[in-house]
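Notebook, p. 212. Picked up where the previous page left off. The plan for this session was modest: take the two constructs that came back from the sequencing core last week, fold each one, and keep the raw output in the notebook itself so nobody has to go hunting through shared drives later. Recording the first one now, exactly as returned: residue sequence, then the structure token string.
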Amino acid sequence: MTKLTAVMVECALKLSPTALRHRLIYIVLGAAFMASASAQVRIGSDRDNTAQQQKKPYVVLVGLDGFRSDYADRYHATHLQAIGDQGVHTALTPVFPSLTFPNFYSMATGLYPEHHGIVEMKFYDPQKKRTFRYTDRNDASDGSWFGGVPIWVLAQRQGMRTASFFWVGSEAEIAGARPSYYIPYDGKIPNEARVAQVIDWLKLPPSKRPHLITVYFSDADDAGHHFGPDSAELRDAVERLDRLAGTLTARLKELNLPVNVVIVSDHGMIQLKRTPIALDAYLAPHDMPDPAKNVSPIDLYANSPEQADRWYNALHNKDSRFEAYRRADVPAHLHYSTGSRIGDIVLIRRDPVHLFDRLPSPLELARYFETHVGDHGFDPALIPEMKGIFYAQGPNIRAETRIAPPESIEIYPLVARILGLKIEGHVDASGKIAKTIYRQ
């Protein structure tokens, strides 16, 4: 019996018989999932930490999908607030588009999506003549889709072990490497098992112990999409994640290691308006986007330059809720105008509305909005609810420091600096917050 299971049993014995049965079922299933999580750990590299790297501090990088910048204060997330009060806390400005795969991979590489190539959750690559889909395990584990040098690859190259309990790109061999330990994504693995695995990794002997660990939780995003940012379900998700943050920091403290905790989110969330945009209101029936490659509500891929021109003329300046840009003319602040994976036409929505190729029937639309209450992907300069969170605390983080909200690309140089890694090659991040909040 693990220590965590023993604690769960002790608590269960104080419950009523009915509650006890339910809790024991939870314990058995939780223990099974924990064993399953351990069984799923894969070895990306068996190279030991060098003697020099064994002296370095540690970073646990926590990703809270869809955790909006105001959630902690709004829903009284006391553990997260304490982390921020003792160290650093501010909003985190997502790169465009404010979606999970582009942003978590920008944090991992210090690059904008136009440079690392993960420009959307689903997108078309004209050179490969293939469509990337985040739900396709083959795509998610195919390193040829992913550009840049992820922070775990940088560490591996410099003789430092790493581990990932989920992160965008961590399952793929990128630039010739994977994390030392990684687990293929499985959203059914309980949050408690993820925390337990982080602690177990940090209990390994110094030569085997990862100095960078990433771990990911989807609760806030799931609740925000299905029930909205103002729902009781979202509040419950924030409370669960906050308790988890308290458990994690308490258990890390018991290890007596120089561990820095960095907690981030990829984007925020906003309630969708029920007045969607439909492209068939503007485009001729014979000129609609090819569904084989047009899988994104942001990027439109034309079959010819002439079609791109027709689309632009039909969509540009036609509706106050969105604007259509040619790729080269996308506003500079979005850093979304180079790279063939970006559409020939880019649609920037000014309002929180969904975009369909063709407007569904009233019944289909009503059913859609039953499970699509909140959303993201918008320009954070137009819709500030897209901003996420940045909390950091540890021996290498300045105490009680306040900074302006950075972009998500700035997480990369911060983690590299804490770990004492030398950045190789080009990154888009300035490294400004690393200089501001790092404490030697």
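Okay, moving on. Second construct, recorded in the same format:
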Amino acid sequence: MVAEALSAAEKLKAEGMMLKCLICTRSAYRCAGDPDSVKETGALVTAEEHQIYGGLGSAVAEVVLKYTLSD
């Protein structure tokens, strides 16, 4: 998935989109531990070869929500 994410990021940059590509394989908390990236971009996308429920996307969403509500 890392290669897929980097490939997608390059294609989006070529189309003029401003984005950050954060590769986090160990912890959702590390991945979402940079709330400024979410605030700066206004969006967050996760990509995984896992499951829909309880996967990385859910974990990252929980952390982002925590940061959002604490502001």
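Notes on construct two before I forget. The helical segments are 2-14, 28-31, 35-41, 56-70.
Flagging for discussion at group meeting.
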